[in-house]
Design a protein that fits this description.
Blueprint: H1 2-16, H2 21-29, H3 38-41, H4 51-64, H5 66-69, H6 92-101, H7 117-130
Helix pairs in contact: 4-7, 6-7
C-alpha cells in the first residue's frame, strides 16, 4: 500500500507540475502520438478470450492498473483504455508489449518481471473487453 501511495504521489507530481525538470525530461522522451509497433502487432494472443481469462485479467487490472487508469479504464493519470485506437497500437501483441516493457519517458512501467506471460495475456484480454 505504501509503495502504491508513493507511486501516485510521484506520478501526480510530474503530471501537475509540467515545469519540473522530470516532467520536461519525460515530455522530451516520449511524444504521445498514435503509432504502431509492427514487430509486436504480428504476435498472436495464446490466451483464448474466455470469460475466465477476462475475469483473471480484471483481477490483475484491479491490483496493478486501476491507480493510473481508473476503475473503469477511462483514465486518470494514465490514458483512457476504453478507446478503440490506442497510442501504441491496438493489436493484442502491441498491448502485450506495452504491459511487458512499459513506455519510456512516461509513468507506465513494464510488468515483464512482475507478471508471467500468461497473466499479461489475461490482462490483454480484459483490456480488450473494455473497448467501446
Amino acid at each position: 500500500m505504501k509503495e502504491k501511495t508513493m507511486f501516485m504521489i510521484f506520478s501526480l507530481f510530474f503530471c501537475l507540475f509540467p515545469g519540473s525538470a522530470g516532467a520536461e525530461e519525460m515530455k522530451n522522451e516520449h511524444n504521445p502520438h498514435q503509432h504502431h509497433h509492427t514487430e509486436y502487432a504480428k504476435i498472436k494472443n495464446p490466451a483464448s478470450k474466455t470469460e475466465k481469462s477476462i475475469a483473471q485479467g480484471r483481477k490483475l487490472y484491479e491490483k496493478n492498473c486501476v491507480v493510473c487508469h481508473g476503475k473503469t479504464g477511462k483514465g486518470g493519470i494514465g490514458p483512457d483504455l476504453t478507446v478503440l485506437v490506442r497510442i501504441h497500437g491496438s493489436t493484442d501483441g502491441e498491448i502485450f508489449h506495452v504491459i511487458t516493457d512499459g513506455v519510456a519517458g512516461t509513468a507506465m512501467k513494464g510488468f515483464g518481471k512482475e507478471l508471467s506471460d500468461e497473466m499479461r495475456w489475461h490482462l490483454v484480454n480484459y483490456l480488450s473487453s473494455l473497448r467501446k
